[in-house]
Amino acid sequence: MSKFLKLTTATALALTLAAPAYAEKFGLGRAALPEEVAAWNKDVSPDGTGLPEGSGDVLTGEEVFADQCAVCHGDFAEGVGNWPKLAGGKDTLADKDPLKTVGSYWPYLSTTWDYVNRSMPFGNAQTLTPDEVYAIVAYILYSNDLVDDDFVLSKETFLDVELPNADGFILDDRLTAEAHFVREPCMSDCKTGEIAITRNVVFKGDPNSPDDPVSESAGEAAKAAAPAEEEAKAEEAPKAEEAAVVETAALDAELVKAGEKVFKKCKACHQVGDGAKNKTGPILNGVMGAKLGHIEGFKYSKTMLSMGEEGVIWDEATLAEFLTKPKAFVKKTKMSFAGLKKEKDIKAVTEYLKSFSE
Question: Between 3.30.190.30, 1.10.760.10, 3.40.1180.10, 1.10.1740.10, what CATH number should domain 224-354 receive?
Fold first, then answer.
C-alpha cells in the first residue's frame, strides 16, 4: 500500500475517532457510521487484504487491455508517446536512465491492482469490473515475463506472484537511525560575519580536473591505449559475417495481403517499406536472411546480439519460433509482444516480411 493511501486511511480513522468531540464542542456534524467508513476504505494491502472476489486470465486480459489500455500504453504494454511503459526494464534500476515498470521497480502486486482498480482507464476511472481488473493485471504480469500464458489471477493466486523488486525498498527510519546527526539550531551567541569559500575540493581521479595528477596519468594512459583500440577495430572489420543469401521465390499474393493485416499488431513498434525508421523496435526491411541484431544503430538485447554473432539468421523456421513466443526464443529480449497464437498468422506475416527485401 502506498504511503499516500496509508496517510489517507489513517487520517480518515483519526477524524472518525475525533468526530464526537468536535460535534460536542462545536455542534457540527456527527460521527461517521461504520458502513460509511467502509465505503471509503477500499485499499488493497500487499498481503491481499481488501481484494474482491473474482478472477481473470492472461488471454482475456490481452483483449481487455487492447480495448481499455492500449491507446495509452500500447498493445504490448510498451507505452505510446509520453504515456508510461508497463513492461520491460529488468535489471535497469542501476542504469543512468532506468526503466521503472511493474516488472522492474514496483515492489507489491497490490499497488498494481489497486491503481488499475481506482484510477483506470484514464478519463473513465472505476468502470472496470473486478474480473476485468484481475485480467488486466494478469496480462501486465505476462508482459513482464512473470507468469505463463495460462495463468489465472484471483484472490486465491494473488500471493503466488512475487515482483522482482519486492526487497528493493526499505523503511524510512532516518528519524531514529540518523538522530545523532541532528543538532539543535543555534538560538543565541551564534557565529556572525560573512561566510566565504576558502578552498575548492578536487576529487582524485576526476577526469574533469586538469590539476589532478591522478586524472592526468589516467588521461595519458587513455591516449596510449587509443592506437591499440583502433588497430583492434581495424582487424575485426574484415571478420564481419556476410548476410546470408535467401533464395528468391515467387511470393504468395494472398498470403502477403493477409500478412499485412496481421502486421497491424506489430506496427506500434516496427516499420517497413520506404522511409521506415527505427521506433521502439527496429525496422524490418530485409529481415529475412539477415542475422539476428543486424540493424546498425539499434540497441538490441545482449542475447539477440550474441545469437547473431553465433550465426543465427532469420529464416522461416527461426521467425516462426520467435513469433510464437519471443521471450522463449530470445531470453531477456526487450520485445514485450506476447506472440501470435495462430500458425496461419505466423505464415502470413512471414510472407509479408519477405516482400520487403532491401
Answer: 1.10.760.10
Q: Which residues contact 197 (CB under 8 A, 6 or more apart)?
A: none
Q: How far is CA 55 from the centre of its chain?
A: 24
CA 251 vs CA 112, 211, 248: distances in Å: 46, 67, 9
Measured distance between the N- and C-terminal CA atoms of the chain, rounded to whole angstroms = 52
Fold: same for 42-160 and 224-354? yes
The class of domain 42-160 in CATH terms is mainly alpha
Partner residues linked to 56 by β-bridges: 153
Domain spans in the chain, listed from the N-terminal domain onward: 42-160, 224-354
How many CA atoms lie within 13 Å of 168's alpha carbon, on the beta-carbon side?
17
Instruction: For 46-99, give the DSSP string.
Output: TT-TTPPS-EEEHHHHHHHHHHHTHHHH-TTS---TTSPP-S--TT-TTSSS--
Residue pLDDT, tens place only, 274-297: 888 887 788 888 888 889 888 888
Residue 20: predicted pLDDT: 59
Cβ contacts of residue 20 below 8 Å, gap of 6+?
31
DSSP type of residue 262: H
56 phi, psi to nearest 5 deg: -160, 135
Question: How many whole angstroms separate alpha carbon 143 and alpha carbon 79?
Answer: 12
Residue 286, CA distances (Å) to 242, 257, 303, 357 in order: 14, 18, 21, 4
Cell numbers given for 309: 554473432
Enter the C-alpha cell of residue 202: 578536487
Q: What is the pLDDT of residues 7-41, one digit of tens each?
A: 455 555 565 555 555 566 777 888 889 999 888 88
- The residues facing 153 across adjacent strands are 56
Query: Cβ of 145: how many Cβ atoms within 10 Å?
Result: 20
